[in-house]
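Incident log, support desk, overnight shift.

02:14 A customer reports that sequence design results differ from what the structure should imply. Their input is reproduced verbatim below. On-call engineer (initials T.W.) acknowledged and began investigating.
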């Protein structure tokens, strides 16, 4: 009764060597154009600032020599970042300093996210529960410490025999989505208005991100263990 999850492979036509070279040149040119990173506000870097660059969106950015930042103090770098962001146009690209993203949002978009904080507290926080009141995957699965663990697993496997393959496909898709939660959290922590600087920030978005991730992770745990015990899918194939 073992069912194997199907996998799909998308292949692309191989590019010619000349096409690859052109693509690499274009990529380097794009990175050079978008690498903005200095401003008049950082006085200690005035001698090292190069001329303004104009990116395709028309927003101004500035480029600082990497070696000019190697001897910089933390205060110098922070002053530089503040000055760059204060000059950025509403449609500016992410601000980069020495290849590192310093700001990932425009002023306009950051204000939109910050304006949602009251909504988050009033309408969303009520769905977050204290840890001691949260359900856990083990609440819905056979207890491995119980004497009847093996018979209960057998009962679970017998019940899943009647599940159509379409249902199993949906469950696998849900499980994979839930297990990708660390990726979503990492993404949110790269955005200016939502990032959790310390991993325990007492901010609206920091608190919600942590608790939402924990909630969704429990969904993934339950689905993974259920599918594993059911014997209806090839877990190795799914994991690969």
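02:41 Re-run completed on a clean worker. Output:
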């Amino acid at each position: 009764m073992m069912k194997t999850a199907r996998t799909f492979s998308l292949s692309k036509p191989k590019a010619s060597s000349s096409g690859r070279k052109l693509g690499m040149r274009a990529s380097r040119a794009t990175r050079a154009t978008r690498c903005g990173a200095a401003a008049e506000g950082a006085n200690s870097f005035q001698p090292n600032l190069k001329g303004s660059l104009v990116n395709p969106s028309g927003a101004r950015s500035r480029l600082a020599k990497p070696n000019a930042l190697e001897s910089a103090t933390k205060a110098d770098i922070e002053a530089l970042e503040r000055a760059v962001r204060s000059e950025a146009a509403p449609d500016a690209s992410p601000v980069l300093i020495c290849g590192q993203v310093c700001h990932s949002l425009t002023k306009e978009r950051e204000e939109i996210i910050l304006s949602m904080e009251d909504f988050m507290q009033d309408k969303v926080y009520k769905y977050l529960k204290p840890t001691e009141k949260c359900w856990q995957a083990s609440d819905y699965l056979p207890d491995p410490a119980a004497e009847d663990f093996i018979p209960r697993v057998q009962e679970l496997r017998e019940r899943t025999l009647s599940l159509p393959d379409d249902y199993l496909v949906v469950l696998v898709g849900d499980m994979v989505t839930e297990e990708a939660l660390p990726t979503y959290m990492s993404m949110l922590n790269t955005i200016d208005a939502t990032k959790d600087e310390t991993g325990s920030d007492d901010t609206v978005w920091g608190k919600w991100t942590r608790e939402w991730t924990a909630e969704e992770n429990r969904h993934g745990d339950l689905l993974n263990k259920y599918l594993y015990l059911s014997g209806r899918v090839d877990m190795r194939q799914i994991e690969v």
